[in-house]
Amino acid sequence: MATLQLIRQDSTGVTYANPAKPDQTVRFRNTTSQKTLNGVSVPNYRTELIYNEQNSIEVATDVYAADAISVRLSVSGASMSATQLGVLILSLAAQLSAWNTQHVFAGFPPTSAPVIPAA
Predict the structure, then answer these.
(1) What percent of the chain has pLDDT over 90?
(2) Taking Cα atoms as reference points, which of 68, 73, 84 lies closest to residue 29?
(3) pTM, full prediction
(4) CA 76 to CA 31: how far, in whole Å?
(5) In Å, what is the CA distance from 5 to each residue of 20, 28, 30, 63, 74?
(6) DSSP class of residue 114?
């Protein structure tokens, strides 16, 4: 496990990188826009967490390649929905380990159905 360091900051967020493996990065991207709910204009906040790295894999016997892999989490909603967004994020996080074991991220359907806590 590596502790990443701040490498870049711009108007929409920050990027961290692993000093020992610079292609291993995590970006926090934040944007704000307006949306209308029941005729009322409210700010909509969008946050994206983007993990990237080059993963060395053997694609054939003694043939290796760098696979660009990416994991993204995108969250969007009005600030008044922050509590429910938090509930959904934690619910998702609690289920990721099971879905990983079920090889969902390799294209297989989940064998355990998603669970969303009551609002």
Answers:
(1) 95
(2) 73
(3) 0.85
(4) 9
(5) 10, 13, 19, 32, 22
(6) -
Q: In whole angstroms, how far apart are CA 92 and each of 9, 36, 78, 105, 111?
A: 28, 27, 19, 14, 15
How far is Cα 109 from Cα 33, in angstroms, rounded to an integer? 34
- pLDDT value of position 119: 67
* Sign, CA torsion 83/13/48/51: negative
Read off the pLDDT of residues 60-71 as tens digits, 9 standing for 90 and up: 999 999 999 999
Side-chain half-sphere exposure of 32, counting CA atoms within 13 A: 6
Q: How far apart are CA 21 and CA 115, in angstroms?
A: 36
Beta strands in the chain (DSSP E): 5-10, 13-18, 21-37, 40-60, 63-78
Q: How far apart are CA 40 and CA 34, in angstroms?
A: 10
